């Protein structure tokens, strides 16, 4: 997309109602004919733009595309998304972001893809990443924290996804420890952080975020370990992918700024409030063996699960599968 067309889209998003051709030509520093050319190219890309003589132009519909211009036009973030890379097809946005970070990419660099051929899930699993339906996104952060504190950042991602779901749908998301986002008990988003660090500090962390937005039932793999869903399947409505991506990145930016100013406390509090196990009895199993049942107390500063058993002993669980009774 031509950068001028990107600017027109941004203006359509910030102004309400019609925008005159004269205003556009002034803002873009080009002739009215050049404005018309960009409007035509946007229409060819599937944007519905109404043109009314003496009033100007108005955006009435957008295609279900996800591209950097669409996303940036809706960003109000300070750090996250100040550099955005978009790939139509890639192996894994996490791998791309990792490489860019090694080459010196600035903090807040975002890699977005329409489809992934080797989407990475946790524990070496594959993350199903068909084209044209979901969000696949990786963010480069360079936080001034110690490597052992890095797991705290995953909690920022899950809260950002939950907030974005609330902003763009009528659905009520929940978070399942350690960091799945659920709708009606089914997984709708997965997060995968990767890190490059020395013993005394972090070089960078990659926050990998996959959200099932408009995936239909037939597009899910058959061999899923846990029930999965998409926002479309739960709400019956298609989600505008660019709007969702920008809402999520805006929230992540706010959370990251809060994290830098006030530490893990505020995000931990919100995460616990949103957790499906909050104040409930749970069972945590490790590698398939049921081991501990008790009351979910919350998470500690390292993101480990805190569980109180009937004998009033407090247990700290670093990894495992959690089931709410
Ligand atoms: C999980 O298994 O729950 C984590 C899934 C993480 C998937 C996302 S999609 C964008 C980013 N790129 C990847 O290769 N993986 C993450």
Give a concise summary.
The protein is of the alpha+beta class and 325 residues long.
Description of the molecule:
The chain has helices spanning 3-14, 21-28, 32-44, 68-72, 93-102, 152-168, 231-235, 241-262, 265-274, and strands spanning 48-52, 56-61, 83-90, 109-116, 135-141, 173-176, 180-183, 186-198, 201-211, 281-286, 289-299, 305-308, 314-317, 321-324. It is of the alpha+beta class and 325 residues long. It folds into three domains: 3-61, Orthogonal Bundle (Arc Repressor Mutant, subunit A); 68-274, Bira Bifunctional Protein, Domain 2 (BirA Bifunctional Protein, domain 2); 281-324, Roll (SH3 type barrels). The strands form three sheets. A seven-stranded mixed beta sheet has the order 3-4-5-9-8-7-6, with helices on both faces. Strands 13-12-11-10-14 form a five-stranded antiparallel beta sheet, with no helix packed on it. A two-stranded antiparallel sheet has the order 1-2. A hairpin with a 2-residue loop joins strand 8 (186-198) and strand 9 (201-211). The termini are far apart. Biotin (BTN) binds at residues 92-94, 116, 119-122, 125, 127, 136-138, 190-192, 208-210.
